[in-house]
Amino acid sequence: MWDRLYHHCHLASMDPARIRETGAEEADDFAIIPDAAIAIEGSRIRWLGPRKNLPQSPEKLARQIIACDGRWITPALIDCHTHLIFGGNRVAEFNLRLKGIPYAEIAKQGGGIAATVRATRSATEETLLASALQRLDLMQAEGLGTIEIKSGYGLDRENELKMLRVMDRIQNARPIRVSRSFLGAHALPPDHDGDHDSYIDWLCDEMIPLIAAEQLADAVDGFCESIGFSPGQIDRLFRRARAHGLAVRLHAEQLSHQGGAALAARHGALSADHLEYLKDEDAKALAEAGTVAVLLPGAFYTLRETRLPPIAALKRHGVPMAIASDCNPGSSPLLSPLITLNMATTLFQLSPADALAGMTRQAARALGLQHETGMLREGFSADLAIWTIGHPAELSYWIGASPLHAMVLRGEAI
Ligand code: NIG
Ligand code: FE
After folding, report:
1. In Å, what is the CA distance from 310 to each residue of 80, 260, 352?
2. Probe target for ligand 1 pocket from 84, 106, 113, with the most ligand atoms within 8 Å of CB
């Protein structure tokens, strides 16, 4: 007997391997199963398909049967790029940017990431946890089941470890799957006298071995930019990370073309993120490496960027594309997965199905979780979002409302 059977629902399975099985309109990229049922046993999806294919009547199949009144079920959403944990906020800087002072200029004057580093260093672990949970709760009210969170506002041993501990506490405090990235190479902290190379040495010699030995993070991230670190410096960091068996990902080509995406591809990175200044040959390299392009429409919007990431080239080369909030206090104070989907469609002209794939299947891939979550498929983790909508395209259509009805994470109803 299955633990639970949901029926009288439609599924947007997001599973490319699934051929549309019955009924209504033509096949589409949501991999829809109309008039469906989905069964859960323990933490796993055990069966899904058209209701008429159920081997017996529902009562004989499951201990608990839930009629969904024609609602839609998708995989729970995945935000694969966030800086959820930080002290303070940057509303003062928001005002400066509105007056026309650029993000990079504010950073050079000691604001930007450095301002949040000061606020994060002076915050207690409890304060950081409480404010991160407040933000996470808003995201979960819109169907978020998995979140990637980066460190990178501590930038010294004590405060980076503090951020990594908060990630573990978030994982324990909420029904959520947390993927942890160590972003020591986010910015040069003030205590290093302008010496980027010696800071990278310290990350390589002290932090990477510690992170690996104590399994404090799932991947190593960096910011490859004129206001961050050079490709040569990131290359050293990534070599050391990989030598310790750690996966890598990179903030690349956000404000200028530095060659970070090609570098990420050479290292077989899980993802390269932002990519507004990506070149055609970089897209080819990402495709060949299987590195996911993570597009961040919230940062594009907040910084009033005019240069679009090269979506057509990414598509032409077959690069998997994920979408994420980039939730952070500076360049993307975005707390809504659904508005992230909306921005991906309206600003980047992704189809609603590609946008949803970007926050389910492709986001899972960007986290190395593509065999675990991000699709409705037998054997996958039972991570479901149940929505009161008439079609899954509505998830990127409405702005500012959450049609979430219920969620299931690892088989637990939330
Ligand atoms: O992804 N680009 C670097 N990191 C963040 C911004 C962080 C900040 O401004 O605090 C980003 O946009
Ligand atoms: Fe970021």
Report:
1. 20, 15, 18
2. 113
Is the Cβ atom of 143 under 6 angstroms away from ligand 1? no
For residues 135-140, give the mean pLDDT. Answer: 98
Q: In which element (H, E) is residue 201 found?
A: helix 196-202
Neighbours of 110 (CB within 10 A): 10
Helix (H, G, I), strand (E, B) or coil at 332: strand
Q: How confident is the model at residue 26 (pLDDT cuts 50, 70, 90)?
A: very low
Is the shortest distance between the CB of 150 and ligand 1 below 6 Å?
no
Amino acid (1-letter code) at residue 143: G
- 384 and 408 in contact (C-beta within 8 Å)? yes
Gyration radius of the chain over CA positions: 21
**How many other CB atoms are found less than 10 A from the CB of residue 93?**
21
The verdict on the CB of residue 112 being under 6 Å from ligand 1 is: yes
Q: Is the CB of 297 under 6 A from ligand 1?
A: no
3-state class of 184 per DSSP?
strand
CA gap 264, 223 in Å, rounded: 11
Distance CA 187, CA 120 (A): 14
Counting residues of the chain whose pLDDT is more than 70, the rounded percentage is: 98
CA of 327 to the centre of ligand 1 (A): 9
Q: What is the pLDDT of residues 183-228, one digit of tens each?
A: 999 999 998 989 999 999 999 999 999 999 999 999 999 999 999 9
Residue among 356, 347, 273 at smallest CA distance from 314: 273
Residues 6+ apart with CB under 8 A from 232: none
Q: What is the pLDDT of residues 71-100, one digit of tens each?
A: 999 999 999 999 999 999 999 999 999 999
Alpha carbon dihedral 267, 76, 150, 350, in 10-degree steps, equals 60
Summary mean pLDDT of the chain: 96
Is residue 108 very low, low, confident or very high in pLDDT (cuts 50, 70, 90)? confident
Question: How many residues can be counted in the chain?
Answer: 414
Beta bridge mates, 50: 36
- Strands 292-295, 321-323: pairing is parallel
- Its pTM stands at 0.97
